[in-house]
Amino acid sequence: MSTKIDHPRCVGGIEGVNITSMGTLVRGAVGGEAMLSVRYSSTSSDPPVIKWQLKRDKPVTVVQSIGTEIIGNLRTEYRDRVLVFENGTLLLHNLKLSDEGTYEVEISITDDIFTGEGNIDLTVDEPISRLRVAMATATVLELTEHFTLNCSHDAGTKATYSWTKGGKPLANDTRLMLSPNQKVLSIGRVLMVDDDIYACQAENSISNMKSLPVKLTVYKRSSLYIILSTGGIFLLITLVTVCACWKPSKRLKKRQREKANILTLRSDPQNHDIIHEDKSEDEAVPIMTEHECRNPVSLYILKEEDPTTDEPPSLCQTCTSEGSSPPSYGSSLAPPSRSPEPPARSSRRYPRTPTNSPPAYHHRRQGQSRSPPAPSPPRTRGPAHSSLPPAPSPPRRQPTEAVRTNLPTT
């Protein structure tokens, strides 16, 4: 449909130029083409003079030609981008955003007195791309205040926005409010009915795009509290179970047991003759075992003691008196025992000797001398730093009658 821009005017019987246009508004995209179509009519057969200008505060000449032949020098921004047809139509290539505006055309013929004029508006837009909905979180608690959804895109000019909820158009509401450009959707107070799918749509003069839908999940406060409380109880049970099942390592237990034994022996006054505070655990004199207390040779030595001695009962006597039955004696040799010699008080520890001898070192430690049950060769004690003490000779066996006289009657 053509639009008549200028009417022919007659002055003195001479007609002017009539210009008509196919439309007064042309839309173009960045990088595309725009054709500003016009037609003119004249009674003259001479070629027309065509001039296109872009209206600004100061008009900018785009092109000027006689027919299709361009005259003069084009501006730098229009070189290789404009083309003029015989009917006065202008074609613009490789559109830019700066090309947008109102274009004015003037067509004149030398024989004509009046010049035809016309105006066409050109809009240049950029297509919308990568439209999306952005929100702080996809899950929200019921009764939350001022929750917002933003519609954004990477490219596009002069876009207008609209929203849909569950596929239906969304308008301003008392709770659902749109910004003046409708780019931002705000929910005044979130309710359970707001749990739905949302999407936004943007369009301009040359493009139209819809975003991917997003799901907004609304949780009830009671449900959230149940989840949090259940998680806290489960965490507490887990911690209690871990603490109850935790056991110290065997090495740590062994060290604690050894320390407890050492402290017990050092604090017991009955053991002050056995372990000395100035000696380490390795240098302490070993305690007599129950097996050594029941040694028949040791029993014989105890019976040979002087009854007038005021010495308190020894450890072996106590062990013997508390026994459930008297020890039996045989004709074989006495069982192995410790060396009768007391350990030398030196900084060097001597290993135990497997030589069989009666354990009579408890009495010797108290300063009283004991005569062996049978004479034995005299022993000389070496210096404190000697390598090893001389091995003692086994005790001589006493007559059977002497042993029997000292045994208690059954």
TrEMBL record:
Topology class, membrane: Single-pass type I membrane protein
InterPro entries: HEPACAM_domain, Ig-like_dom, Ig-like_dom_sf, Ig-like_fold, Ig_sub, Ig_sub2, Ig_V-set
Recorded superkingdom: Eukaryota
Transmembrane region(s): 224-246
Localization per Swiss-Prot or TrEMBL: Cytoplasm; Endomembrane system
UniProt keyword Cell membrane, yes or no: no
Composition-biased stretches (Low complexity): 321-336
A Pfam family recorded for this sequence: V-set
The keyword Cell cycle belongs to this UniProt entry's keyword annotation: yes
Region annotation (Disordered) ranges: 305-410
Keywords of this entry: Cell cycle, Cytoplasm, Disulfide bond, Glycoprotein, Immunoglobulin domain, Membrane, Signal, Transmembrane, Transmembrane helix
GO cellular component, one term: endomembrane system
Ig-like domain span: 127-217
Name of the protein: Ig-like domain-containing protein
